[in-house]
C-alpha cells in the first residue's frame, strides 16, 4: 500500500543546539544524517510553531512509502516540494505524463504511463536512476492528492490563512473528484 507523509524542516540553529554541533558543520549534512530530528511530521503539534500566519512558502520533505519501505525521502527535501508535486500533477493532467525539475537541487521526477492503468515513477539525479517504481494510477494519484490536501489543510489549520493555500486545497479537491 502506498502512503505519503509531509514534514516541515526545523531551523538549523535549533538543531545545532540540540545536537551540540559547531557552526562549521554544513547544513546539508545535518539534514541528511539526522532526518528524524530535522523534520517534524506536519500532523504533530510541534509543527504548528513552524507555521507563521504570513508565510507563503515552506521548506520540508515528502516521503513516499510502498508498504513499510520508504522509497522517496528526506534526500529530496527542499523549499516548496509540495508545489513540485502539484506542478507534476498539472503536467500529467495536460500531457498524460510529467517531468519536473526540483527547485533547489538537481533531482528530476518523471511520471510516465505504462499501459492503461499504471504509472512509472522515476527519480533521477542528474542522469542516474535513483528510483524506478510502478503503481496502479488510481492508487498513486489518490494517495498523492490526499497527502497534498492533508498538508495544505494542516497549514491553514495552524493559522496560515494565505489565500493561495485555500485556492490550492480547492484545486486539489477538484482533482480528487476526477480520480
Classify the beta-strand content into a percent band: 25-35%
H/I helix tally: 6
Strand segment count: 9
The backbone outline, from C-alpha atoms, is globular
- The SSE order reads EHHHEEEEHEEEEHH
**Number of domains as seen in the coordinates:** 1
The stretches of 5 or more residues where confidence is low (pLDDT under 50) are none
Radius of gyration (CA) equals 17 Å
Distance between the termini: 17 Å
State the share of residues found in helices, binned by percent.
Answer: 25-40%
Major sheet characteristics = 5 strands, antiparallel
Helix/strand-derived class? alpha+beta
Overall mean pLDDT stands at 90
Amino acid at each position: 500500500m502506498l502512503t505519503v507523509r509531509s514534514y516541515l524542516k526545523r531551523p538549523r540553529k535549533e538543531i545545532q543546539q540540540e545536537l551540540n554541533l559547531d557552526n562549521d558543520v554544513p547544513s546539508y549534512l545535518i539534514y541528511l544524517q539526522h532526518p528524524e530530528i530535522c523534520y517534524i511530521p506536519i500532523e504533530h503539534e510541534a509543527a504548528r510553531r513552524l507555521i507563521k500566519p504570513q508565510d507563503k512558502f515552506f521548506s520540508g520533505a515528502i516521503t513516499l512509502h510502498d508498504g513499510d519501505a520508504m522509497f522517496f525521502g528526506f534526500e529530496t527535501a527542499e523549499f516548496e516540494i509540495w508545489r513540485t508535486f502539484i506542478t507534476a500533477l498539472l503536467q500529467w493532467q495536460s500531457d498524460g505524463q510529467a517531468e519536473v525539475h526540483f527547485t533547489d537541487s538537481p533531482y528530476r521526477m518523471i511520471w510516465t504511463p505504462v499501459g492503461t492503468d499504471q504509472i512509472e515513477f522515476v527519480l533521477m539525479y542528474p542522469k542516474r536512476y535513483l528510483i524506478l517504481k510502478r503503481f496502479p494510477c488510481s492508487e498513486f494519484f489518490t494517495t498523492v492528492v490526499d497527502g497534498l490536501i492533508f498538508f495544505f489543510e494542516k497549514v491553514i489549520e495552524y493559522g496560515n490563512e494565505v489565500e493561495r493555500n485555500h485556492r490550492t486545497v480547492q484545486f486539489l479537491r477538484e482533482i480528487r473528484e476526477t480520480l
